[in-house]
Amino acid sequence: MSASPEFPPAEPRLRHHSENQSETALAPIDEASLVRTQVRDCSFIDGGVLCDTRDERVSAALLDGARAAANIDNTPPGAIENVVSAPAEIGKTLYDVRRPLHPNAGLPRDFIGGEVWIGEHRALLADPATRELIELDATPIPAPEDRVSYYDDRHLEYWLSGLEDARKLARWLPAEGVAARYLDFGGATGRVARHMVRRAALDVWLCDINVNSIAWVDRFFSAPAAAFQNRTIPSLPIADGYFDLVSALSVFTHLDQDEIPWLLELRRVIRPGGYLYATVLDEYVWDRLKDPAWEWVLKSISRGVHDDTLPERCKHPLTERVVLEYSSDDASNVTVFLPRDYLVAKWRRFFRTIEFFEDQHIYQTVVVLQCP
Predict the structure, then answer these.
(1) Measuring CA to CA, which residue among 279, 205, 209, 208 is closest to residue 244?
(2) Residue 240 has what DSSP assignment?
(3) Across-strand partners of 316?
(4) Which is it for strands 243-248 and 270-280: parallel, antiparallel or unpaired?
(5) What is the secondary structure of 125-152 as a DSSP string?
(6) CB atoms within 10 A of CB 25
(7) How far apart are CA 149 and CA 332, in angstroms?
(8) For position 154, what pLDDT does the model report?
(9) What is the pLDDT of residues 356-371, one digit of tens each?
(10) What pLDDT sits at residue 327?
């Protein structure tokens, strides 16, 4: 992998669609039709199934499967309580497989002088205040295998990238010292959250589909953060309107069928007036894939599966949603491109405003949506 090109000046280019645009009414959501795929200790109550103490209703087909697994034949709803041991493998993915954590790379201060490729990160490192933070940070840097290989062995750049994202997120929070709540959705081993926990009066939460990422945060974070594993289904065990800010960095870039259900679930847990800060691959990224200087981005997106077709395909404008599958895994197995016209038509209808900021998460575009 070659060094990345220098990025444009820090002032982001902005496209703003104001709340004065015409609104489209939200379609009613039929909760009874939602399929919940994790069924463990179950109680049949009023025709639904309670999963892990949460009211997660399953479809008729899954309900029949749970009944069969529990050896229940046409038992009337409510007749049996606390039916245990429905099949544990239902809804399992490779991200539920627990494994030993790898030895940590070291403390941040161990890597002062390490490789830093990106200009914005080098600028951060030149600030004496950043050096002080590096020296004081007692949370270790996870091994690349425990951080989705973010920045490979460039451990200092991994740390700096989290600081950069945290500072960009701060714009969308109440003033420092004012009590607020933040969720790092898809936060892995806390690349960003490790910096957010230093903010005064901010209650920091993190969730991820990888059980081992949560185990790492629980074990090694030196400052308190509430971490939990979410499922692949679009459901979070969080009250309505709980967070002031939710970030989803490199999450919607890998969501296909559940894109809109997850968007609505995140909207649900954000307070009115709060913000969703998500990254996407849009036409701004797509158009640069044909530039030889950005071949490393193209290869990271094609992952060896689309190397022969993507270069030719990206010579044409991105006019529709594009999904590139790169593995047969149960989750996070696609790369998704979303044109801005699509985002305005499909995402904007659920929020008050939508704004676009280019090159704000490495090469990805940030979309900021304000909840009504």
Answers:
(1) 205
(2) T
(3) none
(4) parallel
(5) HTSHHHHHHHHH--SPBPPGGGTTTTTT
(6) 6
(7) 14
(8) 97
(9) 999 999 899 999 999 9
(10) 84
